[in-house]
Amino acid sequence: MTERTDSRDSEQRPHPASPAARREVVLGVVGGSGLYEIDGLTAVEEVDLETPFGRPSDRYTVGLLPRDGLGPVRAVFLPRHGRGHVLLPTEINYRANIHGFKQLGVTHLLSVSAVGSLREHIAPGHVVVPDQFIDRTSRRIGTFFGEGVVAHVQMGDPVDAALRARLLAAARSEADTVHDGGTCMVMEGPAFSTRAESELYRSWGASVIGMTAQPEAKLAREAEIAYALLALSTDYDCWHVSEAQVSVEAVIAVLHQNVALSRRIVRSLASALPRSTEQLPYPRALEHAIITAPEKVPAATRARLDLILGHVLRS
Fold this sequence. Notes:
Elements: H1 2-12, E1 26-31, E2 42-47, E3 60-65, E4 73-79, H2 94-103, E5 108-117, E6 127-129, E7 132-135, H3 161-174, E8 178-180, E9 183-186, H4 195-203, E10 208-210, H5 213-222, E11 226-235, H6 248-271, H7 299-304, H8 306-314
Parallel strand pairs: 1-4, 1-5, 5-11, 6-8, 7-9, 9-10
Antiparallel strand pairs: 2-3, 3-4, 5-10, 6-11
Helix pairs in contact: 3-6
């Protein structure tokens, strides 16, 4: 009798990826070069996860950040390259990282990244809050789907507009110079651009260049997590002939300044977040994205992707 009651309760309980189970805003932060922790967390817990896509870059740090006029917001932090910066951009397991954030209940993800400037007016030390990407990566798995299930999410506007607006306000409250919008070129790396490549990207209208925002943003959209990028300029890439060519030494020097700034911006963003996802929605990207007939999805694929699409297949 007890087993039948438990089974019924399980069937009636909302799926963990459903709107009913994601009513509270949970902030994720993925840190880039130099940002290996965030300040101000209380009730801190280190979480070591396994995912259906392997191991994430490192342990997640879970805790609480203060919020104005409300109780604290739950926050989840992951160093993208691992503590000590041990992973190349190409070696990062982006699927595991994003899936881990979803496992920990994250609804909104802030990506912090060091970038090179492709524009004269974006100087080293400036902050950019991009709204577009050009993906030039070639050696990364950029989707959760496949192996019997096909889905096509909308990526026309790859950055969540509402989260980006709040990030922009937080950045302006802490930084001297903040650039609203722009296109982030995402290259494979790890080598920096040739001068010809840098000039090509400039001719395409790109504002900054980095190595990690893709497929991060695409996977976040597939996982129905709102995504925004805080880009911190460290150099002028190599197009700016009046400046020295980009070097690790020059990047690190500016990084040290940017890390403290990025931590302040994270705290400012967290302090102004609402409690409910009704006030700050996350993208419902899969509602009309899955092409495959539900009965055709293989059982193993369905199980592996349950946290991503189980709520859609169930309905």
